[in-house]
Design brief:
alpha+beta, 3 domains, 10% strand, three-stranded antiparallel β-sheet, Phage integrase-like protein contains catalytic core domain, hpI Integrase, Chain A, DNA polymerase, domain 1, four-stranded antiparallel β-sheet, DNA integration, Double Stranded RNA Binding Domain, DNA binding
């Protein structure tokens, strides 16, 4: 015989005395001595009695309690435990509340080992941090679709094409990371956003470089002995990229050779071979001055913490009204080598830290042309510091040279 339902009334609920009052169908009102009250549903699951709370009677009306009780009873009839099902739903809801900001940072942390310098420079994360997270960071990742992505990247899709492309690729990685965490995300959202954004019309431009004939004048202006001036001077004199230079540590220098760890060199992730940079007398003088500013072992520290940034050096040149940027001095050096010397191609490319030749050729090569590069960089230093000289010829040594 079916148990009677709806035995209570709203007035009875309000005026109920302390104790337990049945509404039928396993729904009970538990009124406490202190005046508080709670709805409780009793059900039998696989021969075992279960009790689950449905909320306070002050927050959940009699009608709402009956509706909730019927939903959970329906689950029991289908063979499910309502308490375990509610716990599952809460866990799922909690997972789905992950916002993009949390997912992006977790994805970044999990990929640091794959990035140069373990991602210390922050270039992997910066396209997201600057252009995406300010607008979408607080949005649950499961709610992000192609329209959201299109709207946030449209302002830079053509004007900052490379940055926008990187941001879109990083977003795709974040969505895959969220899916791996069990979140119900749209893995095609970035591809669909790309279709909405259309083809980029922007052409990638080379970083502006200073003509090598103008470098001595600029070098001479870097004369105040500050960290920024010294960093730019050593950048010019060595032709290295700004990353290894900014993170230069005193122990990397032995005599007149600066050894850059292989993993710090662009395009050499996972490489075991370090890269040796010959230091001219002028470069060694800069290093000696930089040691006076050293902090935590770094020769070019920032004012607050860490090391000097790319932006700091770039802003100095920008404030001086120059189009050229720090990275462009590598092109200045390469042009000087081509136009003012008769340096063999392999030596010229090795000077810039470029990988020369195929894997087989590199396997048989036993030299990094250090002696030839030492002569070349000494000649470059004389040019940079305003000393003139004639065109020189550097003979290419045999590949078997130790």
């Amino acid at each position: 015989m079916a148990r009677p339902l709806n035995k209570l009334t709203a007035v009875a609920v309000k005026n109920a005395s302390a104790g337990k009052h049945s509404d039928g169908g396993g729904l009970w009102l538990h009124k406490r001595e202190d005046g508080g009250s709670q709805w409780i549903l009793r059900v039998n699951v696989h021969g075992r009695r279960r009790e689950m709370g449905l909320g306070s009677a002050s927050d959940v009306s009699l009608k709402e309690a009956r509706e909730a009780a019927e939903r959970w009873r329906a689950l029991v009839r289908s063979g499910l435990d309502p308490i375990k099902e509610r716990q599952r739903q809460r866990r799922e809801a909690a997972r789905n509340l992950h916002c993009l900001d949390d997912i992006a940072r977790d994805a970044f942390e999990s990929r640091k080992a794959e990035l140069k310098g373990d991602g210390i420079a922050g270039r992997w994360f910066s396209p997201l941090e600057i252009h995406v997270l300010p607008k979408l960071g607080k949005v649950p990742v499961v709610d992000i679709d192609q329209t959201d992505i299109r709207d946030v990247l449209a302002p830079i899709w053509h004007s900052k094409a490379e940055t926008a492309r990187k941001a879109l690729n990083r977003l795709a990685i974040c969505l895959k990371h969220a899916a791996a965490l069990g979140l119900d995300v749209d893995l095609q959202a970035t591809d669909k956003a790309r279709a909405l954004l259309g083809k980029q019309r922007h052409k990638i431009e080379n970083i502006p470089a200073m003509p090598w004939q103008d470098v001595p004048g600029f070098f001479a202006s870097l004369s105040d002995g500050s960290v920024t001036h010294l960093a730019l001077r050593l950048l010019i004199l060595t032709g290295v990229r700004s990353g290894p230079l900014r993170f230069l540590r005193d122990e990397q220098i032995n005599g007149d050779v600066w050894t850059i760890p292989g993993e710090a060199m662009k395009g050499r992730k996972g490489a075991t071979a370090d890269f040796r940079v010959p230091l001219s007398d002028a470069a060694l003088a800069v290093v000696e001055q930089a040691r006076q500013h050293a902090r935590d072992g770094f020769l070019f520290p920032s004012l607050r913490k860490g090391v000097i940034s790319d932006a700091t050096m770039s802003r100095l040149m920008e404030r001086a009204g120059m189009e050229a940027r720090p990275h462009g001095f590598r092109s200045s050096l390469r042009d000087w080598i081509a136009e003012a010397t008769d340096t063999p191609h392999d030596i010229a490319e090795t000077t810039l830290g470029h990988i020369v030749g195929g894997a087989v050729e590199r396997a048989y090569r036993r030299t990094d042309f250090l002696e030839q590069r030492r002569q070349l960089m000494a000649r470059w230093a004389r040019h940079v510091t305003g000393q003139s000289g004639q065109v020189i010829t550097l003979a290419k040594r045999n590949h078997s040279e130790p």
